[in-house]
Amino acid sequence: MKKTGKAPAGARSSKSKPASGKPASGRGTGARPGSTKPVSAKPTGDATEEVKPARTGGPKKYGTRTGTPSFKRPAKAHMPKFDDKIRLNKYLANAGLCSRREADTLIESGVVTVNGQVITEMGYKVEPTDVVKFDGATVKNEKKRYVLVNKPVDFSLRYEEDHSKKSVYQLIKSASKEPLIPVGKLDKSAAGLVLYTNDTDLELKLTHPQVRVSQLFHLILNKEMSEEDLEKLTKGLFVDEKMFKAEDASFVKGKSHNEIGVKIFSSKSNMVKLMIGKLGYEIVKLDRVEYAGLTKKDLPRGHYRHLLEKEVGFLKMN
C-alpha cells in the first residue's frame, strides 16, 4: 500500500507541534485561555494526546494539585542557645565594684568566691544563677544604666545627705534603681549636660587624661572679648606651664562679643575656665551644650533621659 504521508483523521503529527513546546492555542483542547487547570486527554479518532496547561507566568502553588511538583516545607533551622556566661572580671566590673583590670588583681589575690569556692583562674566564667562574693559580701551584677541630665545652675553633681542642698541626684532619683556616678566634673555654678552611669569601664575611659572627649561650651563673660584674644584660644595658651588649645572658638551670632562658643577635645572641663582666666576675663555663665557627641536637643533644663542603644555604642566605640 502506498504511503500518502497523511495522518489519520483526528491524529496530530509531531511536526505540527510549535517550537516552544506549547500548544498553538487553546482551541480544541478544552482549556480556557489563561487557565492553569489541567485538561484530561480525550480520544480523537485513533490516537490520544495529553494536553498540558498553558503557563501564565503567575506564582507557582507548591503542594497543591495543579500538576506542578509538590515540595515539603523545610525543617526549621536549629537555633543555637545564647551563652549567658560572662567572665568573672566583667561580672565584678558590671557590678560597679571596680574596673576589669582591677578585678583581675582581686581574683588573683583569692578574695573572690563563686558558689563558695575561691576562684583565682583568669578568664573564669560565671552564670547568672551563680553566687559571687567579694570579701564575704555578695556581689550583684546590675544592669548598665546611662542617664543624660541637663543640669541647672547651683546643683551639685554629688549626693547630698542634707536635702536642703540642691543635688542632681534629686533630679534623677527615679531614673535608676542602681547607684549612678557622674562622668567627669562640672562646677556647681555651671549648667549643662552631665552623664551619669554605673558602667565603671566607660566612666574611666571618658575621664582618662589622654582621651579626647568633645565638649562645647556657651560662655557669657564679664566683658566683651577682643578678636585677638578669641584667636589665642585656638592658637594655644600656656597655663601653669601646660599648653591648652581650643578646637574652635567664635562669637555667638546675633549677640554682643561677651558671648562666645568654645569647643575642646579633652576630658577636662576646667580647661576652658583656665584659658579664659589666663586672658583676663571672668565667666559669668557657663553652659555645656554638647558632651561626647550628645546634645541638649529635646532635653529641657532640670530634666534627664536614658541614652539610646546606638548612643551607648558610639561612646564605647570612640
Task: Report on this structure.
- The protein has 318 residues and is an alpha+beta fold.
- Among the domains are: 86-138, RNA-binding S4 domain (Structural Genomics Hypothetical 15.5 Kd Protein In mrcA-pckA Intergenic Region, Chain A, Roll), CATH 3.10.290; 146-196 and 297-317, 2-Layer Sandwich (Alpha-Beta Plaits), CATH 3.30.70; 214-291, Pseudouridine synthase.
- Helix content is 16%, strand content 21%.
- The chain has six helices and 17 strands.
- The strands form four sheets. Strands 7, 8, 9, 10, 13, 14, 15, 16 and 17 form a nine-stranded mixed β-sheet that branches.
- α1 crosses α2 (100-109).
- The longest helix is centred in the N-terminal third of the chain and has 10 residues, at 100-109.
- The N and C termini lie far apart (97 Å).
